[in-house]
Design goal:
Elements (H helix, E strand, L loop, with lengths): L10 H17 L9 E5 L4 E5 L4 E3 L4 E7 L3 H8 L2 E8 L4 E13 L2 H9 L27 H4 L5 H4 L6 E15 L6 E6 L5 E5 L2
The chain binds flavin mononucleotide.
Flavin mononucleotide binds next to β2, β4 and α2.
Length: 202
């Protein structure tokens, strides 16, 4: 007999499990929940991309990731802050579909705090000369040789701050799906106003 799973049919345990997955993913590089797909856009042009989860705050119901302010998704988010963030953990057999409202943070206290925590090497992403998605007539990393070869000091990496932003995603709902041989389970946690938990047919 396999171990009974506490979060199989218990709403409180499900919520606990979800936040445990999200907060662990921020610290644990090998977590399957560390790299969700972030989807945004409008009714004409929706697009998804993988991002790295950098913060998960259960008390205030938000998650955060970092990006380059020059990415075309930034304008899209500003026009339409509604987004979807999709997670799947094969080991956990859990899918999370998060709906959120995004806020672009740029050169403020939130970005300062995150930038300080961003290591010298990870700052390389923000040192590309032209913004992500810029056309190039040859294959390129977008980096000057100096940065390409990691030949830069922490001080020089500060130049990346002008391109750095933090996308804060205020969670409105989380849809949880758990795959189990004895029967899948699915539920919706609505966080708009007073919290509401609803079971759904998987
Ligand atoms: C494992 C992985 C992690 C990534 N993490 C991020 C991230 O945290 N933030 C980000 O903006 N892009 C990240 N990217 C790159 C995006 O998926 C995407 O290629 C890039 O943001 C450019 O597309 P966009 O401007 O439409 O977002 C990551 C890609 C991969 C494969």
């Amino acid at each position: 007999m396999s171990e009974p799973i506490s979060y199989y049919e218990n709403s409180e345990e499900i919520e606990k499990k979800i936040w445990s997955l999200l907060t662990t993913a921020v610290k644990d590089r090998s977590s399957e929940f560390r790299t969700p797909v972030f989807i945004c856009g409008d009714d004409q042009d929706l697009d998804g991309r993988v991002v790295v989860l950098r913060k998960a705050d259960q008390q205030n119901n938000f998650i955060q990731y970092h990006s380059d302010i020059r990415s075309s998704k930034i304008e899209k988010i500003k026009k339409n802050p509604k987004c979807s963030i999709l997670f799947y953990g094969k080991e956990e057999k859990i899918q999370l579909r998060v709906k959120a409202e995004c806020e672009v943070n740029y050169k403020n206290d939130i970005t300062k705090e995150s930038w300080e925590k961003t290591g010298h090497i990870s700052r390389k992403c923000y040192l590309v000369t032209s913004g992500p998605g810029t056309k190039s007539d040859k294959p390129t990393s977008g980096l000057d040789n100096k940065f390409e070869n990691f030949d830069f000091t922490k001080e020089e990496s500060e130049a990346g701050y002008k391109n750095f932003c933090v996308i804060k995603c205020k969670i409105q709902s989380i849809e949880w799906l758990y795959l189990a041989a004895k029967g899948h389970r699915r539920a919706l946690i609505d966080l708009n106003g007073s919290k509401n938990f609803t079971w759904l047919v998987p």
